[in-house]
Amino acid sequence: MRRRSLLIAVPAGLVTLAACGDEDSGSSKASDSASPQASGTSAPPSPKIVDGPLPAITAGTKFGEKPTVAKGSGEPSKDLAVKTAIAGGGKAVAENDFLVADYLGQIWDSAKVFDNSYDRKTPIVIQLTQGSIIDGWRYALAGKKAGSRVQFSVPPAYGYGDQGSPQGGIKGTDTLVFVVDVKDTLNAKSSAKGKEVPQDDAALPKVGTDTDGAAPSIEVPDTAAPKKLVANYVIEGDGPEVAAQSTVLVQYKGVVWDGGKEFDSTYGRKQLTSFSLQQVVKGWSQGLTGKKVGSRVLIVIPPELGYGDNPPQGSGIEKDSTLVFSVDILATM
Fold first, then answer.
1. Most buried residue among 80, 224, 249, 290 by CB atoms closer than 10 A?
2. Half-sphere exposure of 144 (CA within 13 A, CB side)
3. Which residues contact 304 (CB under 8 A, 6 or more apart)?
4. 47, 139 in Cβ contact below 8 A?
């Protein structure tokens, strides 16, 4: 499994998407990289943010390039030192957003690199919220814009505290230095991006193509539901393909075929959700596997690939219901 640096918690899947109890449900594997993880201790007060000192970036100075960072000189700041090395012009990162970024982290005194995403060639996707990421990241990156390269140093109080992180070779007295390339920020207003795909089959539901962050319409035809799984692009993105074992970050809306009644939606909660495709109903895992990040997908799930005669209590789904979803695949995690 691809290592998932910096993540300490996977948001719980919604009850209406959980696989039936007799199915195998893959658990999220902890990262085996030497990466920073948020401690379980209570958060300290908001830090004072200063300009430096910060060690020089000596190579890989362009956005998206793996940087080389010099060893820290002298005593690091006891505050959070933050510098925008490259100013981007994209959306600003806000608390509780999901950050898409490449990064490198090393120790101030030794310049030992304990983790980086550049070698994995896959950016991290992580929520900028307390308990999901070390506080140094939360405070240093809030307000920065997509397209920016941000360098910052994190004293122990805003990293791992006195206990450090033995897994990463980080002592409780170590100040950490990070270079982060902010590629994107995702929140409840995010939508699919790509080219619209014709929806020519009158026997299938038609999904709205608006991309303003509002819930798309789903028009279910007055015909018999298909007997087999349907998974069609409504908007085709240009991101990487979703693998069968991927964890995906999505917006979605679900209705039942008979009557078109909505039973679940991230739009109504104003909160994105993420889950492993190994932990959801078969119609979701089969329907999203192979689809591209950035896409909106129509999924029509027959009962045997959904909940059959055992729908979740209180979900509003009747036994043997065919389910219809519009799913925006925003990222893999």
1. 249
2. 29
3. none
4. yes
Predicted local distance difference test score (pLDDT) of residue 28: 35
Burial of 63 (0-12, 13-18, 19+ CB in 10 A): middle
By three-state DSSP, how is residue 25 classified? Answer: coil
Q: What is the largest CA-CA distance in the chain?
A: 73
pTM for the whole structure:
0.86
Q: From CA 29, how far away is CA 10, in angstroms rounded?
A: 10
Question: What percentage of the chain reaches a pLDDT higher than 90?
Answer: 82
The secondary structure of residue 199, as a DSSP letter, is -
DSSP 318: P
Q: pLDDT per residue over 109-143, tens digit each?
A: 999 999 999 999 999 999 999 988 999 999 999 99
From the CB of residue 333, how many other CB atoms can be counted at a distance below 10 Å? 23
Tokens for 39, please give them.
Answer: 């401690």
With 70 as the cut, is the pLDDT of residue 228 above it?
A: yes
SS3 for 5?
coil
CA–CA distances in Å: residue 326 to residues 24, 212, 231:
25, 15, 10
pLDDT computed for residue 15 by the predictor: 33
**Cα torsion for 144, 146, 151, 153, to the nearest 10°?**
50
Distance between CA atoms of residues 304 and 317, nearest Å: 14
Distance CA 239, CA 292 (A): 5
* Angle 285-287-289 from CA coordinates, rounded to 5°: 65
The whole-angstrom separation of Cα 85 and Cα 56 is 10
Neighbours of 20 (CB within 10 A): 14
